[in-house]
Amino acid sequence: MAATALAGSAVLLAAPAAHAEVVDVDYQCKTPIGNKGAVSPIDIKSVESGGGHKLTMSFQKGVSSSPIELGKGAMKPSALIKLGGAESGDVTVTGPPNSEAIPANTPIKISDLSGTYTPKKSGKVTFTASTLTIKAMGTTTTCTPKNNPKPSLTLDVKAAGGGAPSGGAELPQTGPEDSAVALGTLGGTVVLVGAVGVLWLTRRGQVRG
C-alpha cells in the first residue's frame, strides 16, 4: 500500500504538461514605403526559470524587407505573445539587433526573441504569436497576424504562491505546494499503516484470550 501511495505521489509531482507546434503566421506589415506581407512559421518554446517561464519565439522565415541596406546593428525587433486560456494579456519578447548587414530588398530575418512569463493564475495557458515590431534607421514597421493563427504553445501552469484554478480542491498548505501534495499522499499511507496496526493488535489480543 505504501508503494502504491508513493507511486501516486510521483505522478502528482510530475512536471507540468506542455504542447508545442510550429504554426504558420501570415504577417501583414505596415512599412514606411507601403504594405508588405509574408508568411513565417513561428515556434514558441518555454523553459522554467525560478517562479516563471522563459519564452523564446523563433521565426523560420523573414517577414519584411528594406529598400536600402540595413547595416550591422541597425535593426531592433520585438513582439507580443498573446496569452489565452486561464490567462489573458500579452508577454513582450525582444531580441538583439541584427548581427550582420541585411541587403536591400531581401527578407529581414528576425533573431530569436525572448521574455519572461510569470503565471498569475493556475491552469492551461496558450501562447500565440501576435504583433511584431521592427525598428530600423529611425523608422518603425508594425506587422500584424492576418490569419488568426492558432497557439504555438500550451502549458499547464501554477501561479506563484500555489494558486489553484477556480473550483479546484486544494490541500491545506503549511509549506511549499509540492510538500503539501507529498504530505497529503504520505498522510494517506500513515492512515493505512495505522489501520493495519489496529488490526494486528486486535488479532494479538484474540490469540492471548
TrEMBL record:
The chain crosses the membrane at residues 180-201. Keywords: Membrane, Signal, Transmembrane, Transmembrane helix. It comes from the Bacteria. Residues 1-20 form the signal peptide. This is LPXTG cell wall anchor domain-containing protein. The lineage of its organism: Bacteria, Bacillati, Actinomycetota, Actinomycetes, Kitasatosporales.
